[in-house]
Design brief:
heterodimer; A: mainly beta; 7-stranded mixed beta sheet; 4-stranded antiparallel beta sheet; 11 strands; 0% helix; B: mainly beta; 6-stranded mixed beta sheet; 51% strand; globular
């Protein structure tokens, strides 16, 4: 049973460019959340998708946007990349919050 | 301001020693979760505690939720090198009732030396 799958695993982009990160949730999960984890920090909530709609959003600018597809997979898009966007981007899926979240291994984004 | 404060930030011990790490808040949480994260990987859920005063055991790991649901601790008995990792506590944002938004502490980075 595959867990949460994220792609790509590593990515290097230039300041000002746009990036798209992808996530396939664990089988049976219908909710996808995205987190940003800077070096030495805990993950910070970006937003959550359920039934193809953004359900909740953290304190991130509009440059961060997302999408969820009918098969529950999700994309995170970041426009006009800044050096400070360099981080590990984690996708987490869930079905019932009380059962906790399953995280993917993340995408390491480096902006140069 | 961090909603969840974890201490210590770093901990380096020898194999076989016992240790306790802490997760504290001034806010009441409906539940708290503990995760372990290894380098280059995502966090892996260890346990969820829901009831104030609850104690859960997972092999050599003991988790406790404070009576007032503002704090939690993780105790590891006879630590092994395989316990090395970043231990994170997290909970639903108490400022948003029923929130799906998890807030995390900064974590405790544990190193167990052979």
């Amino acid at each position: 049973d595959a867990g949460v799958t994220q792609s790509p695993t590593h990515l290097i982009k230039t300041r000002g460019q746009q990036v798209t990160l992808r996530c396939s949730p664990k089988s049976g999960h219908d909710t996808v959340s995205w987190y940003q984890q800077a070096l030495g920090q805990g993950p910070q909530f970006i937003f959550q998708y359920y039934e193809e709609e953004e359900r909740q959003r953290g304190n991130f600018p509009d440059r961060f946007s997302g999408h969820q597809f009918p098969n529950y997979s999700s994309e995170l898009n970041v426009n006009a990349l800044l050096l400070g966007d360099s981080a590990l981007y984690l996708c987490a899926s869930s079905f019932n919050r009380a059962q906790g979240y399953t995280f993917g291994s993340g995408t390491r984004l480096t902006v140069v | 301001t961090q909603l969840l404060e974890q201490s210590p930030q770093f901990l380096s011990i020898q194999e076989g020693e016992n240790l306790t790490v802490y997760c504290n808040s001034s806010s009441v949480f409906s539940s708290l979760q503990w995760y372990r994260q290894e380098p280059g990987e995502g966090p892996v859920l260890l346990v969820t505690v829901v009831t104030g005063g609850e104690v859960k055991k997972l092999k050599r790991l003991t988790f406790q939720f404070g009576d007032a649901r503002k704090d939690s601790s993780l105790h590891i008995t006879a630590a092994q090198p395989g316990d090395t990792g970043l231990y994170l506590c997290a909970g639903p944002n108490p400022a948003q009732g029923g929130s799906e938004k998890l807030v995390f502490g900064k974590g405790t980075k544990l190193t167990v030396n052979p």
